Amino acid sequence: MASILPKPNKTRLAQLAELSAKIFNNVYNPKGERTGNKILRQKLIGPTVVDWYPKRIITLRKITDMFPRMELVNQEEKLRLEEIAKRKKRGKGAPKKVHTHELPPLTPTTLHIHFLASPINPSDINQIEGVYPLRPTFTKELGVLSDGEHKELAVGGNEGVAEVIAVGDQIKDLKVGDWVVIGRSGFGTWRTHAAATPNDVTRIDNKGIGLIQAATMTVNACTAFRLLKDFVTLKEGDFVIQNGANSGVGQSVIQIANAWNINTINIVRNRPDIDDLKARLKSLGATHVVTDEELGCYKTKELIKEWTSINNNVGVKLGLNCVGGKVSTEMAKYLCRSGYHITYGAMSRQPITIPASLLIFKNIKFLGYWMSKWNQVHSKEERIEMLNEVIGLIRQGKLGDIAHDEVIWGNSNENDESLKIKFLDVLDKANTGFHGKKQILKIQL
Ligand SMILES: NC(=O)c1ccc[n+]([C@@H]2O[C@H](COP(=O)([O-])OP(=O)(O)OC[C@H]3O[C@@H](n4cnc5c(N)ncnc54)[C@H](OP(=O)(O)O)[C@@H]3O)[C@@H](O)[C@H]2O)c1
């Protein structure tokens, strides 16, 4: 039987479809354009992807946190808390006070110095934490405290530059106005003034040297200098690889190597402003900069192979390890046969794992370096020779300031309490990763 209703026209049908889409919350798409809806309607594959990865191992810490009522003992955490309690008993921890003392009277064999600038280095912090092998010098000679107490005290800081302000009659090789750097660890440089003996200090010729360079040369620059000199004979065009490349030592390594025409491959931790950091290190003379995350990728491996094989190069002869942990193992894999892997820092506080193959088949030599030991076993003359070489590089403009924040110390509006708050803040910054700048106390009186 034929329909008695007339067939609806196209426009009418389109209007109906639009209305229906509105009512049922569908997309009205009369031209059938690609919208991606087909893909959005597909079953989610997230759970499948998650299942593909191995299950995360649940840690004891997580279990104890999840079930506190079970009172499970986390042995590692217990030992950590016990260690902190022990250190606290021994008086370790952040410095408690800013003290004011009178300098002891000058004697014929002593001198008085006024500090100009002193950095805060990671080893200073380790010393305060009680995990550094050298203790600061505790003495009662600093005198009676403002509250009348007379107890043994130590001053923090191991590096700094000072000006001589008074000299005992019998001292012939130092005069008022000379600049001196501290010649031994544990002297205590976070202070305005000190009484010293000639053996505590080394005079430097400050012509053409900035305050920051003078304040940081004995630890960062001298360590970099020795690391590049003492293990492998490097010639122009050779390659060195280093992690923690934006550290004070790392920046000095880049600049000294650049001055000697040695190539550097520099590893830094990835961060949001990584391009700025790469550009900054390159402006110092870094040949290549890669992140810790890029280090293990196939593309980086191929690139490093390509960089280090130019001009019949044998590969990377020296690896400098500031960090420890996984990145130090990865770095070791780039060393050439019989290359040297030198550990001088442990910023990640992670142990170093050495694959047996690197020892057996590549004969890589894993060694350590400690500047304080070098200073102890070498003569004052050798130390002066090294300082003069470093100063020479500074004067030639080849070794500039490391990235730093200057903290003005000794503003007339400050008292002991406000200085203490300021100092703890600076200490905190110095101990914070990704900050990227050495904290330097610039002492003004
Ligand atoms: N053996 C020696 O004679 C000698 C001499 C001088 C220094 N050192 C040691 O060398 C290291 C560097 O000293 P410095 O004065 O050059 O230090 P610095 O200027 O204060 O720089 C610290 C460096 O450590 C990195 N870092 C901080 N926390 C880290 C972590 N958890 N994992 C990986 N990297 C981390 C920082 O990178 P980010 O920007 O990524 O945080 C930065 O590159 C220290 O361990 C120090 O004790 C040893």
From TrEMBL:
It catalyses: a 2,3-saturated acyl-[ACP] + NADP(+) = a (2E)-enoyl-[ACP] + NADPH + H(+). It holds the Pfam family ADH_N. One of its GO terms (cellular component) is mitochondrion. Its EC number is 1.3.1.104. Coiled coil: none annotated. Keywords: Fatty acid biosynthesis, Fatty acid metabolism, Lipid biosynthesis, Lipid metabolism, Mitochondrion, NADP, Oxidoreductase, Transit peptide. Residues 93-408 form the Enoyl reductase (ER) domain. Its main location: mitochondrion. Gene3D superfamilies: Medium-chain alcohol dehydrogenases, catalytic domain, NAD(P)-binding Rossmann-like Domain. GO terms for molecular function: enoyl-[acyl-carrier-protein] reductase (NADPH) activity. SMART domains: PKS_ER. GO terms for biological process: fatty acid biosynthetic process. It is an enzyme of class 1 (oxidoreductase). It is found in: Mitochondrion. PANTHER family: ENOYL-[ACYL-CARRIER-PROTEIN] REDUCTASE, MITOCHONDRIAL. Belongs to the zinc-containing alcohol dehydrogenase family. Quinone oxidoreductase subfamily. This is enoyl-[acyl-carrier-protein] reductase. It comes from Funneliformis geosporum. The lineage of its organism: Eukaryota, Fungi, Fungi incertae sedis, Mucoromycota, Glomeromycotina.
